[in-house]
Specification:
Length: 143
């Protein structure tokens, strides 16, 4: 069994693409890309839920590991790209948090929330009207 595992490992290590694909230089950044993707997806959410301290810590973390990705041998450009994207996403979130809490963003978001509630009410009214008209048409057609 050990001989078979050694043979498979030797086959993988002899191919540069497979060697890279089976290394932590690939899978570490690949699995870590969830953090920047979440930061980017969260830019569409209410800034009320953003934690300034967590976002700051994630920016510091990404800034540190961007440097680390270029300091290791061989340089890990995929890890650098992951942390570069995360740094940008967290920077955007930190700006949104600061704008909300310190630059008058609360008033803007209160207006947006009120407009969204009004729009929901209009949608409900329109749905009820359409259902009523559909019932009238159904009754007239069935006669």
């Amino acid at each position: 069994m050990a001989v078979a595992i050694k043979a498979i490992n030797a086959k993988i290590r002899s191919n540069k693409v497979l060697d890279y694909f089976c290394s932590t230089h690939f899978w570490g950044p690949a699995s870590n890309f969830g953090i920047p993707l979440a930061a980017i997806m969260d830019t569409q959410k209410d800034p009320l839920i953003i934690s300034g301290s967590t976002t700051s810590a994630l920016m510091l973390y990404s800034g540190t590991f961007m440097r680390y990705a270029l300091a290791v041998t061989p340089k890990n450009y995929l890890l650098f790209a992951c942390h570069f994207v995360n740094f940008g996403g967290q920077g955007t979130q930190l700006y949104r948090w600061y704008d909300y809490w310190y630059m008058g963003g609360q008033a803007k978001w209160d207006t947006l929330r009120a407009d969204a509630k009004a729009a929901e009410g209009l949608v409900d009214q329109t749905q009820q009207k359409v259902q009523g008209i559909a019932e009238e048409v159904k009754n007239k057609v069935s006669k």
